Amino acid sequence: MKPIQLAMCFLVLFSTFSSHAQNQKSKEFKVTFEKFTLENGLQVILHIDRSDPVVAVALTSHVGSAREKAGRTGFAHLFEHLLFLESENLGKGGLDKMSARIGGEGANGSTSRDRTNYFQTVPKDALEKMIWAEADKLGYFINTVTEPVLAKEKQVVKNEKRQSYDNRPYGHNFSVISKNLYPATHPYNWDVIGSLEDLQNATLEDVKSFYNLWYVPNNVTLSIAGDFDVKQTKAWVEKYFGEIKRGEAIPKMEKQSVTLSETKKLYYEDNFAKLPQLTLTWPSVYEYHPDSYALEVLASYLSKGKKAPLYKTLVEDKKLTDAADVFQYNSEIAGQYMLSVTAFEKTNLNDVMKGVNEAFKNFETEGISQQDLNRIKAGQETAFYTNLSSVSGKGFQLAQYEIFAGTPDYINQDVKNILAVTTEDVMLVYKKYIKGKHFVATSFVPKGKVNLILDGSTLAAVVEEKIIEGKEDSFDASIAATYEKTPSKFDRSKEPAYGQSPDVKLPSVWKNKLSSGINVLGIENHEVPLVQFQLQIKGGMLLENTDKIGVSNMLAEQMTKGTKNKTPEQLEYAIESLGATIKAYATDESIFISGNTLAKNYNATMALVQEIILQPRWDNKEFELIKQSTLSQILQQKADPNSIARNEFKKLIYGEESILSNNRIGTENSVNNITIDDLKNYYTKNTAPSVTNFQIVGAVSKTDVINSLATLDKNWEVKDITFPKKITANTVGSSKIYFYNVPGAKQSVIRIGYPALAATDADFYPVQIMNYRLGGGGFASQLTQQLREGKGYTYGINSSFNGSVNKGPFTVSSGVRSNVTFESVSLIKEILSQYGKNFTENDLEVTKGYLIKSNARAFETLSSKLQMLYEISNYNYADDYAKQQEKIVKNSTIEAIKKLSEKYLNADKMIYLVVGDAETQLIKLEQIGFGSPILLNKPKVK
């Protein structure tokens, strides 16, 4: 994927219209669309949604890693990167530059086994620009790919692989599974990202051949969803895409299901794992296979919730883990069914396997009830509406059906298939695909813990990259490509003009202060029949005792584990039967209870929230499970370089005297010392309506919301809560480099910054403006352009100012190739030092363009509206603060930016933290000029 962080994304959009607990019938909900095909074969899908002045444009090519050849893997994903770099008429970096100017969310993409897509949501006045740009990428791109361009992007993809696979716990697990589940001749045998060796061997001719075969109109779907004129849009699509030549006929890839002749057991000693993990994978079905619907229900029933057989056996009875997960990974021509368990420390995975078999036997005996089937379907209905809460979600779903089911209208058949699942179907698919069938079992264990693997396992073949100083290919990213332009019927070099400027209307906010002191803010919105809310109790870690850090985190976990009159299982069932979710979690400064529910079930959902708050259960069994789960999280964080960086950076930013320097989930010592009485005392002493905000958005009126809170308002005890008067932070007098050693790390994780501002400070928004071109603007930022695009050192880098009512840090964050750690830190330091001095009129123009125009999509989704209410209620912002900030942007000057840079970007007064391989990288950092690096985790002297 293109963004900083990579996640394995499966866009699973459940179009479910099921009965819920009250046996009410759901009204039919349709996503209307129009589909047409150009003469060159381009499929076009249009969907109108006028709820916000935005448009989502997505270009999806029906090519993923499955269309590659052995020995030339990773091409589909490589192309996802290349198509963002340059095309004949956009120019070098033109798409990212245009995205910034027009206020787009940022051009992005993703690659799967079977498709590659490119997408962006923009203000509606930029639609023609987006159609022009997407057509330029499809038809006028390949001439711009040169040897230096290819060499640089290979380095970026390699960095992505290191970050997402090689430098994280269990990162090689999927690769081991794929190679053993699918034969070498099967196109799902290799990773989507490909092998480093294949990437390195890719030639320019290979790249061009791949493009000419797969990136042709007759293999591409264009989807446009949002607020636009259909007739005009059709004309633009024909104008910009119509003359792109049709390619060769694309042969349909036949289904290729697999069978295993034996069970395969493999193991691997993972350098980054602290806990043993067992994964079982069975051959399964392709996407939209008739059996996939019952298999989805089976996955949910086996592993999700208190009633799940795997939860009862592995978590409650045997106490081997805090969770088990079962899920489908279905693709176009085949699929796999997966069960994953990350066990507690020192747990033998043979015991986990015995527990899994025991849970399966229990399921075989008891089956699934109609009541549980209805409960699962209710949750799917809510998930469906949630996925449709943005124009991009609607566009994605329509394209998904077009490519993999043959028509966007398959949504209607999909609904029928889901509704048709019976309890008998669930048992049938279990017997057909799971019971007694061969599978692939992988045991990933910490180094030196081979005694924990499944009996009979053999060592998995994993290719470990060796990073050697000075061995990476060099390239000059500044070289401009020279090429002959592709002929066109009109001058494509002229970027289209803007359309009519959108009329940006901020959501209307209503407020109410209840008699108990609860501060209520809401936005009524009927775009989808959903309600999202969060109840915020201020305090969090701030109100903890320093010797019992982690209490508020554990309390939040405990709150949803039953009530006085409902067992944990009964409460969970009551929530899920409504198709709702209620979650509680803690932050450094608050405890939140958040929810998502169908509007028709809002009152019933809120009744459960009030019961959770007013009638806690204090279940000792659940408390012990939470404690063990938290201890496992702490261990896992110790193995993850990014978690290490986050936790160590907090210590350095705030200093030992500040409670904010702590990891909010605690340490092994603090968690072991916490009792259930500590949770009760925190609840009694620190939770009250006077420190509570309730924020809500969706299809519910102010009157209904106020009425729904009546019981809470009446019965929640009013009390005064005392907060610490001052939260301290470190003062950085001069820069120092700190190093945390992770032997054998393939990447160095970098954090650079200092304690900066609170969100309530006058300069807080102005520094956001200043930071846009530094590192807050994605591919429009200098840090990204120089370290990723210019040097190929990293997959992603960003900078940010974060604050709340308390002072927060300025931070530069990145993960870089290990053997360029010194060069990366040195370059970041130089960019920080020169940023204000080099800030230009063009930088200001781009910044203003993005920040002003992006307001059109700033509050499109329910979650973005909820965030707006959070900021108003916590920071005393005005209801129209977005408009006020727009005025600040318009009045910004180069001189003001330079002054802010001088004041807040002093590279010689920052904390420099590196988490990486000390043996190869530590000493070199002395050359930065801040003295000898301080090693944070020196080996203890025996």
Task: Describe this protein's structure.
The protein has 942 residues and is an alpha+beta fold. The protein is built from 32 helices and 24 strands. Strands 1-2-6-3-5-4 form a 6-stranded mixed sheet, sandwiched between helices. A 6-stranded mixed sheet has the order 9-10-8-11-7-12, with helices on both faces. It has a 6-stranded mixed sheet with strand order 13-14-18-15-17-16, with helices on both faces. Strand 16 and strand 17 form a beta hairpin. Helix 1 packs across helix 4 (147-166) and helix 9 packs across helix 15 (423-433). The longest helix is centred in the first third of the chain and has 20 residues, at 147-166. Residues 1-26 have low confidence and may be disordered.
Q: Count of helices? A: 32
Strand content: 15-25%
Unreliable parts: 1-26
Shape: globular
Concise synopsis of the structure shown:
By secondary structure, the protein is of the alpha+beta class.
Would you spell out the secondary-structure blueprint of this structure?
Blueprint: E1 34-37, E2 43-48, E3 54-61, H1 75-82, H2 94-102, E4 108-111, E5 116-123, H3 127-139, H4 147-166, H5 173-181, H6 196-201, H7 204-214, E6 220-226, H8 230-241, E7 264-270, E8 277-284, H9 292-303, H10 309-317, E9 325-330, E10 335-342, H11 349-366, H12 370-387, H13 391-405, H14 410-419, H15 423-433, E11 440-446, E12 458-459, E13 510-513, E14 519-524, E15 530-538, H16 551-559, H17 568-577, E16 581-586, E17 590-598, H18 602-614, H19 620-639, H20 641-654, H21 668-673, H22 676-686, E18 692-698, H23 702-708, H24 710-715, E19 736-741, E20 747-757, H25 764-776, H26 782-790, E21 794-801, E22 808-817, H27 821-838, H28 841-853, H29 862-875, H30 881-890, H31 894-904, E23 911-916, H32 918-921, E24 934-935
Parallel strand pairs: 2-6, 7-11, 7-12, 14-18, 19-23, 19-24
Antiparallel strand pairs: 1-2, 3-5, 3-6, 4-5, 8-10, 8-11, 9-10, 13-14, 15-17, 15-18, 16-17, 20-22, 20-23, 21-22
